[in-house]
Amino acid sequence: MIRFEGVSKIFSTDVVLKNINWEIKKGEKVGLIGSNGAGKSTQFKILIGEEDETSGKIIKEGNPEIAHLKQELDCNLNSSVREELESSFKDIQIVTIKLLEIEKKMKSLDVKKHPNELEKLVNQLAIYQAKFEALGGYKMQSDVEKILPELGFSFEDADKLVGNFSGGWQMKVALGKIILQKPDLLLLDEPTNHLDLDTIFWLEEYLSSLKIAIIIISHDRYFLDKLCKKIIYVDRGISETYNGNYSFFVEQKTLNEESQNKAYQLQQKEIAMQKKYIDRFRASATRSSQAKSREKQLKNISKIEAPIANSKSPAFKFPDCPRSGKSVLNIKNLSHSYENKILFLDVNFKVFSGEKIAILGPNGCGKSTLLKIIMKRVSPEIGEVNFGKHNIITSYYEQNQAEALSSEEKVIDLICMKSPDWSQKKVRTFLGGFGFQKETVFKYIKQLSGGEKARLALALMIMNPSNFLLLDEPTNHLDLQSKENLELAIKNYKGSLLIVSHDRYFISKVANRIIEIKDSKLFSYDGNYEYFLEKK
Questions:
Q1: What counts of helices (H) and strands (E) characterise the chain?
Q2: 3-state SS, residue 329
Q3: How far lies 508's CA from each of 112, 248, 528, in Å?
Q4: Which of 341-372 are b and which e, b meaning 16 or more Cβ less than 10 Å from the residue's Cβ?
Q5: Secondary element (H or E) of residue 382
Q6: E strand or H helix at 248, and its extent?
């Protein structure tokens, strides 16, 4: 359907794409992955015509219709769900307005004074009615009513304002508008951001049922695994295609790197041996011809390229901290409400040393509120929240902690201010572990990208040693490599952990117990995420 051939994109300050080669066939579902700033969104912009490629070419077979679901949803919150879905039929709406104008003129026309005018209007009416029918105007209402239950809306919901629904439901409206346009190719940019697990499950099933081609930019590895049968990996402006899901990509990429490294090392060893022989016998009366022959062979050898060193990515560990006692947290008979909604009703909950607990539940069920109650940021209406009696030291990462970073200071100055006794070398080494190397440590905080702010927020949190971590959506804005490094740091962390996250792959890697919030109660599953799914 579409093929990129040697595509590059050069901005005045940066080379974003160097050599992009990939294709997508009809009905294929493809994951487009790479670190933040790798040029994934730039490829989307080129596809929809917002940017032009600097060189190379893009071949489109049969002029496919391309639709783009952006991260910032295109919805009018003051329209009803039905009106918003109908707004996707732009051509039909233009013709409808014209028909209404003609009908209005006919009603107010004085036929006796303007006998010829009526004939003109009748002819115009016939032309626009034919256009209305050709565009499928009579089908529009039935198409909208057909898609409503597919999106999870009832017919009563259709007349409610879009603004009355949560972000997840607004995403469904935006997606419905695009599907009604019957595109050949759907581009999705981080579609699972800020969705709860139930909506993500729905989205997976819905996209799986669509017969159209889809390209997905996502850091949600479970989502990529479930949907995609092809992965396009972009690194340093160059693309590689892997014919399998995300797990296959990870496995194959590792094998390819190991194989290339082994072949390179063997060839380098062989070249060194041949050079040694040539240098030794070049001037020999009996072996000089052999030496010259080997030198000629060496010049013509097809050299294996040195493996590209992995991009520098944030790698860090949590600092050592004194161990806590066995009991870390005890919540007794907790009841709490928010804006007339009961979040918790007579809840009892304990955390013991070494437990790494993921808290799951739909948006608005009280996950973040529970962490705030534990951290004494919110006072519970009823019940007790007590930390263990022996040596509990907490660290708390709030959901919007990264977005809140907007000071006028430079990154390095902020860390120096927080740790005045640290040497310059220690500060630089510490920041290097979070991906701030060389000149990037002198960036102003307000100029940082979402991913950079997320890494800096994590750095600030772990500067002070703790043995009880409370993390609220810590992987938001992190690229795949940063997530993997955070997973490794948590695996090696000796303390206890409470984590709120919608990242199922992340949860499956770090949690050894799952707590589900449902109907104002807490349900405990003493196992990892796969165990939780099995029991559910």
A1: 17, 18
A2: strand
A3: 80, 17, 6
A4: eebbeebebebbbbbbbbbbbbbebbbbbbbb
A5: strand 382-387
A6: helix 246-281
Ordered per-residue pLDDT tens for the chain, 536 residues: 999 999 999 988 788 899 999 999 999 999 999 887 788 989 999 999 999 999 999 999 988 999 998 777 778 889 999 999 988 888 888 888 888 998 888 888 887 887 788 888 888 899 988 988 888 777 888 888 889 998 889 989 999 998 888 777 888 898 898 888 889 999 998 888 777 788 888 899 999 999 999 999 988 889 999 999 999 999 889 999 999 999 999 899 889 888 888 988 999 998 899 889 888 888 887 888 888 888 888 888 888 877 765 555 557 788 888 999 999 999 999 999 988 889 999 999 999 999 999 999 988 889 999 999 999 999 999 999 999 989 999 999 987 776 667 677 889 998 998 888 889 888 888 888 887 888 888 888 888 877 788 888 888 888 889 999 999 988 877 777 778 888 999 999 999 999 999 889 999 999 999 999 999 999 999 999 999 999 98
Q: Which of 519, 521, 504, 514 is nearest to 536 (CA)?
A: 514
Measured in residues, the chain has a length of: 536
- Distance (Å, rounded) from C-alpha 151 to C-alpha 256? 41
